[in-house]
Amino acid sequence: MNPLQLAPRLLSRYRPTLILPHPFPGLTLIHRMALARELLQRHEEFSVEHQGLRIAACFGPGMLGLQDGPEYRAHLQLGREVVQRSDCQRLGSFLDREANAIIDQATAHKATLNLVGDYLDPLCLRYLEHYFGIPDPGHGVLLRWYRMTSHYIFNVYITNGPSIELPAQRAGNRLLSHVTEIIRRRSESNNLEGEDVMSRLLRLRQTKYPELTHAELAQRLITLSSGGVDPRSGQRVRAALAQGVIGRRQSGRRQSRPHRDR
Length: 262
Hints:
By secondary structure, this protein is mainly α. Helices cover 60% and strands 2% of the residues. The chain starts with a helix and ends in a 19-residue tail after the last helix.
């Protein structure tokens, strides 16, 4: 058995809780599901306050950094109104068409396909613009903003320091400014048509949430969209492999092979 597969089983049996040494002081790993569930119910002892502070430093208060309560439920209700289950089929069809178009374009003049740079990044950018209404300012900078902030916010084992905090906070501030400016322009031009999430938010503000500012709408949109942007290229490559995108090829062309750039 692969050691990476064996280790969790051994830890679950002999060390259900493991306190990690330096450089992860104070971090404890839980290896039994029953114990993890029990701990997650102890809301007074375990909270999202830590990541909430990081989220606020990047782009203001967000649902993923709030404890259960009236404010959290208000954020959750708004999210449920603009992200709908019926979107899945339409979005899936769009992504399938775009994925094939990207592969065709990327392999038209070369034999190999760079899974991250040629395929996954362009597809992610098209997804953000099509479904959430957030276009890239240029050169893929939108993904860099998402990755830097997500890595900082959700990787709680990272030791804080200016080399990590400041770039991530600057990226979050720029992401918030970018989305806020798009919302401002669309509001002033009364461009509220469309079935992207931004359009739905703008229409809901007119009819139900007039108190929400441009920046508050942007904060909510960033929270909703960040779940669909995986900051780890390696995981996205493995997902692409699992979906069989490497096996696709045009008639008469050499099969595309993975080429890692990160």
